[in-house]
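Dear H.,

Thanks for agreeing to be a second pair of eyes. The structure we're designing against is below in token form, covering all 275 positions.
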């Protein structure tokens, strides 16, 4: 008899994650033979030991969130090209005695974008990425795949230079003190920093200098309207938050584990909007 699949998300802390709502919705909707998708706290200091215990318990797939994506990258025995390209893993699959690492944030970000935004604001356009953490790596790769010219700006300049070297895609690093001089030339501006979570305001961009035809994106989805997006809104600049990316990266992980690419339905989006 085959065992029902066990999947979940690991992080530290992971309590804030809404991935279980998304995955459990699709497990039910698609009649997948799987038990409840769960949140599991994993202490980064004991990553290997704790993940090995989960493998022993029969887990077949794990999503990986902050701050474990680089540890998951080192832990995986087989890596997809995209995870090698980003140096981060957000999806682990355990099968036939091996551990496969993938990164679905890249495709998740790409699929979250409206084609009009890709055509008008990204392809052959100047795109500014704020931040240089794990999420920035995925966003830089996605923009590069979509034909955008990437500019990276981060509080810690060296980290921006580090990802520029690591990713080996064409990009320029902007010193934060020069941001005001270049921001008017950007057609796509993405916040990948954690500024805007909780009560921290993101004041990196002076929106009075931003072109009104630009498109502004914040990876944060809670709160739905960060002060970053609210500043864009006040100037009638188009914007979106990170909820669609969260759903799209989850859909690709679901596809890897269950061989079904689930639909991003209004029912699910309403469930998430209502949280
Ligand atoms: P991370 O690796 O910890 O990177 C955090 C980034 O934020 C770094 O660039 C850091 O700059 C910057 N930062 C933090 N505090 C700052 C401050 N006070 N001032 C200026 N910069 C600051 O985190 P991550 O994995 O990249 O995630 C970043 C955000 O993206 C999180 O809010 C996460 O929830 C979100 N995210 C969303 C999705 C989605 O599906 N929507 C997917 C992935 C991530 P330094 O280098 O100077 O420290």
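And this is the sequence the design step returned. I haven't edited it by hand at all.
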């Amino acid at each position: 008899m085959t065992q029902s699949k066990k999947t979940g998300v690991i992080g530290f802390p992971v309590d804030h994650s809404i991935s279980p709502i998304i995955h459990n919705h699709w497990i039910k909707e698609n009649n997948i033979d799987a038990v409840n998708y769960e949140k599991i706290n994993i202490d980064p200091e004991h990553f290997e030991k704790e993940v090995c215990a989960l493998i022993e318990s029969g887990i077949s797939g794990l999503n990986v969130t902050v701050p474990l994506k680089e540890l998951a990258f080192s832990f995986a025995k087989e890596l997809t090209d995209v995870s090698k390209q980003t140096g981060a893993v957000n999806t682990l699959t355990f099968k036939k005695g091996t551990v496969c690492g993938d990164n679905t944030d890249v495709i998740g970000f790409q699929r979250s974008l409206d084609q009009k935004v890709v055509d008008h604001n990204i392809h052959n356009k100047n795109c500014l990425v704020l931040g240089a953490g794990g999420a920035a790596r995925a966003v830089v790769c996605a923009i590069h795949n979509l034909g955008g010219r990437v500019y990276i700006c981060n509080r810690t300049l060296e980290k921006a230079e580090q990802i520029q070297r690591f990713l080996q895609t064409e990009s320029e690093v902007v010193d934060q003190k020069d941001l005001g001089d270049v921001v008017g030339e950007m057609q796509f501006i993405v916040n990948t920093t954690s500024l805007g979570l909780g009560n921290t305001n993101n004041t990196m961009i002076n929106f009075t200098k931003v072109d009104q035809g630009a498109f502004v994106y914040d990876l944060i989805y809670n709160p739905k309207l960060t002060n970053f997006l609210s500043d864009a809104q006040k100037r009638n600049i188009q914007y979106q938050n990170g909820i669609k990316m969260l759903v799209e990266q989850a859909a690709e992980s679901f596809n890897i584990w269950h061989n079904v690419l689930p639909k991003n339905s209004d029912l699910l989006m309403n469930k998430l909007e209502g949280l």
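Two observations from my side: Residues 66, 105, 131-136, 154-156, 159, 192-195, 197, 219-221, 242, 245-246, 249 surround NAP (CB under 6 Å). The longest strand covers residues 7-11.

Warmly,
E.
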